[in-house]
């Protein structure tokens, strides 16, 4: 007799590195398997909509290729010769190797390395408690947010902005520097609502005709890295044609008269030459936003991928300030809401043990660090032991030839805690199976909205998979630091500590699902003044001294060519400029069905994306004698990548676009797209310019 399966619906939160941080309704079947995953209709930001890849999450969490048991390397690195081990034996080995490395070179030889494979506060950031307690090398986070956050805060003084739900109340929504259809689906939910209910216009600004540009009423496709020129021209028109709000400027900004004077030579003709846009396109955009007071500027993370990204972001956030858009409901600007949250993370991260004398290593320069570059090593010992969680550096980090060379070192002991046998795990000495978000407890915050959200454990981990927190705690016991404050607590106890400033606990948040911590209108719109000490928006920022959410530690100092940054918003050509040998600009843009290297193992996502390809304009392909589908090589001084060509009118002439971070092994020569990207620092506070690459193209 067949017994019908029983299912229940539980609330959860998407853990992945996306500003949407969607509230989820998850079907659990017979207490042990995941069924349908939907967006919660009760959450005012998610509004019932999630991306297709997360909707298929059962395909990922129950994937037959998940890591299920600890493994210890037997043969040479990368050969795939593994021996199954118990958790006890594997962790004993890790502790033994870490202690031996420390005895030989000092504690800084060990580098705990992580990033945002989960955005859960406990499972992601608890690694720092282990780091600080042992005085292991610090990690300076540079791969994602630095450049955009820095540019935004240089203007506003605070990493926060207009309530993103107000997009639905706008008369014009400008989606700039993000392909929201592919990477932030809920931005489109609220923008399209404004169009349907208010007749609002949607403007999309990108470096190719993305899916978002295709859905917009006005699409502006400019050359990579030229956003600041467009912003300057729009402000020029605003001053020229009377769209600038002088009452607002005189009250809320630092040097509006000087800005107007500075921009007199930076009109649409000047910007057209730089951006590749037509003068008429620039004029039309400037007129639209200049005559539409309720214009909402939604600025994305595309700014953070270029060597002039901080300057570009600052210029873009200056536009709504010149127009006075901040004053209106449905107007203003938003990038990230990081400043509104009040988590107490001191116990979680072991802040009390942090020693300012311990060196900092740039996560984006891992290739240089692991191959012995003295500058990258900050004058300290070699890195000979690593714990890696929540990231796949052998695929996602710049300068892949160096990264792979570093991981191939026989004197490097690497332990990787992972869900699948990634290309980083393949080069490890010990591989530990990790849980997914529905298999452990955690708490989240929405960078792209205003909710604190719970992700409770709903099912048991697959096989012997264990959470990150388990690894921290078990290593602490073996390394002799488990007696220190913060260790010996459960995930739920740490969550209670995080939530205490908000008067919440794990249990109260589980009952509610999420809490809305959006500031009031006056705070979000800076009606009482901007975040700088004098309350003024900065058109003329102090690039070297203004605090930012992730400023480099004092021991590292300003990053990149910081002294070249302009006094006022301006186009600054710090990019990797094409030349005769490398005539093309390559951008490694996100794919709709992948999220960095995550989901590239999921059959549904792989089927949607097909294979690694690079898009090229038809005229460029014709000039090179290349046909659609041809196998080609892209190259520069860092290496070569072999993949297939897709002829498309989506990029402009001279621009190439490779969507999606495919595994290295999916490419024809086994070298992934980050073989071509550089790790040199972005001014003024660091970052990685993974959309800012010059290359040549040749037929294979």
Automatic annotation (TrEMBL):
Q: Which residues form the 4Fe-4S Mo/W bis-MGD-type domain?
A: 7-65
Alphabetical keyword list: Iron, Iron-sulfur, Metal-binding
* GO MF annotation terms: iron-sulfur cluster binding; metal ion binding; molybdopterin cofactor binding; oxidoreductase activity
Q: Which family does it belong to?
A: Belongs to the prokaryotic molybdopterin-containing oxidoreductase family.
> What PANTHER family does the record point to?
OXIDOREDUCTASE YYAE-RELATED, TRIMETHYLAMINE-N-OXIDE REDUCTASE
Cite the CDD domains for this sequence. Answer: MopB_3, MopB_CT_3
Q: Where do the TM regions start and end? A: none
Under Pfam families, the record lists: Molybdop_Fe4S4, Molybdopterin, Molydop_binding
Q: Which InterPro entries match?
A: Asp_de-COase-like_dom_sf (IPR009010), MoPterin_dinucl-bd_dom (IPR006657), Mopterin_OxRdtase (IPR006656), Mopterin_OxRdtase_4Fe-4S_dom (IPR006963), Prok_Mopterin_Oxidored (IPR050612), YoaE_C (IPR037920)
Q: Does the keyword Cell cycle apply?
A: no
What protein name is recorded for this chain?
Molybdopterin oxidoreductase family protein
């Amino acid at each position: 007799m067949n017994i019908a399966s029983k299912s229940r619906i539980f609330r959860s939160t998407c853990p992945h590195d996306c500003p949407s941080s969607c509230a989820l309704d998850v079907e659990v079947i017979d207490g042990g398997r995941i069924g349908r995953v939907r967006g919660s209709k009760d959450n005012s930001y998610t509004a019932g909509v999630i991306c297709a890849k997360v909707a298929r999450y059962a395909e990922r969490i129950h994937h037959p290729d998940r890591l299920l048991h600890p493994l210890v390397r037997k043969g040479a690195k990368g050969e795939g010769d593994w021996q199954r081990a118990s958790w006890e034996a594997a962790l004993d080995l890790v502790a033994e190797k870490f202690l031996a490395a420390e005895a030989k070179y000092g504690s800084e030889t060990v580098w705990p390395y992580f990033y945002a494979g989960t955005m859960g506060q406990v499972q992601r950031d608890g690694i720092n408690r282990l780091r600080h307690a042992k005085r292991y090398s610090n990690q300076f986070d540079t791969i994602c947010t630095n450049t955009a956050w820095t540019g935004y805060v240089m203007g506003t003084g605070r990493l926060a902005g207009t309530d993103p739900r107000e997009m639905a109340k706008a008369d014009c929504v400008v989606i700039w520097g993000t392909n929201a259809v592919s990477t932030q689906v809920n931005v489109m939910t609220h923008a399209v609502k404004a169009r349907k209910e208010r007749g609002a216009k949607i403007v999309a600004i990108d470096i190719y005709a993305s899916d978002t540009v295709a859905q917009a009423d006005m699409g502006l496709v400019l050359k990579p890295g030229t956003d600041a020129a467009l912003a300057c021209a729009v402000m020029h028109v605003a001053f020229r044609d009377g769209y600038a709000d002088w009452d607002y400027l005189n009250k809320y900004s630092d040097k509006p008269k000087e800005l107007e004077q500075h921009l007199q030579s930076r009109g649409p003709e000047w910007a057209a030459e730089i951006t590749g846009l037509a003068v008429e396109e620039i004029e039309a955009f400037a007129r639209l936003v200049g005559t539409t007071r309720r214009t909402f500027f939604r600025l994305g993370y595309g700014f953070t991928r270029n060597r002039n990204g901080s300057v570009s972001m600052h210029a873009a956030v200056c536009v709504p300030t010149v127009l006075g858009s901040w004053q209106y409901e449905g107007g203003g600007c938003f990038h990230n809401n990081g400043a509104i949250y009040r988590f107490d993370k001191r116990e979680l991260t072991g802040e009390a043990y942090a020693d300012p004398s311990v060196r900092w290593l740039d996560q984006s320069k891992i290739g240089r660090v692991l191959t012995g570059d003295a500058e990258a090593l900050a004058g300290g010992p070699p890195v000979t032991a690593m714990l890696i969680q929540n990231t796949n550096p052998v695929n996602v980090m710049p300068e892949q030839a160096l990264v792979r060379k570093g991981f191939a070192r026989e004197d490097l002991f690497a332990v990787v805690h992972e869900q699948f046998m990634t290309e980083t795990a393949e080069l490890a000495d010990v591989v530990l199976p990790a849980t997914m978000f529905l298999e452990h407890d955690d708490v989240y915050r929405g960078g792209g909205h205003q909710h604190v959200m719970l992700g409770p454990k709903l099912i048991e981990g697959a096989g012997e998979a264990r959470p990150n927190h388990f690894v921290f705690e078990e290593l602490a016991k073996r390394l002799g630091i488990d007696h220190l404050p913060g260790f010996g607590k459960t995930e739920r106890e740490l969550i209670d500590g995080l939530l205490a400033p908000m008067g919440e606990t794990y249990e109260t948040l589980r009952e509610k699902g999420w809490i809305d911590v959006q500031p009031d209108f006056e705070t979000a719109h800076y009606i009482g003044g901007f975040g700088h000490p004098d309350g003024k928006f900065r058109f003329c920022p102090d690039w070297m001294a203004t605090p930012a959410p992730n400023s480099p530690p004092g021991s590292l100092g300003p990053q990149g060519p910081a002294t070249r940054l302009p006094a006022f918003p301006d186009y600054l050509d710090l990019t990797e400029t094409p030349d005769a040998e490398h005539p093309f600009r390559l951008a490694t843009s996100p794919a709709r069905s992948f999220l960095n290297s995550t989901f590239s193992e999921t059959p549904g996502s792989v089927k949607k994306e097909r294979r690694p390809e690079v898009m090229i304009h038809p005229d460029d392909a014709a000039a090179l004698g290349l046909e659609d589908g041809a196998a080609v090589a892209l190259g520069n001084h860092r290496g070569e990548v072999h993949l297939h060509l897709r002829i498309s009118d989506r990029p402009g002439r001279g621009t190439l676009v490779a969507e999606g971070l495919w595994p290295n092994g999916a490419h024809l020569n086994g070298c992934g797209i980050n073989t071509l990207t550089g790790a040199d620092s972005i001014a003024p506070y660091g970052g990685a310019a993974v959309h800012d690459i010059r290359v040549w193209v040749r037929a294979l």
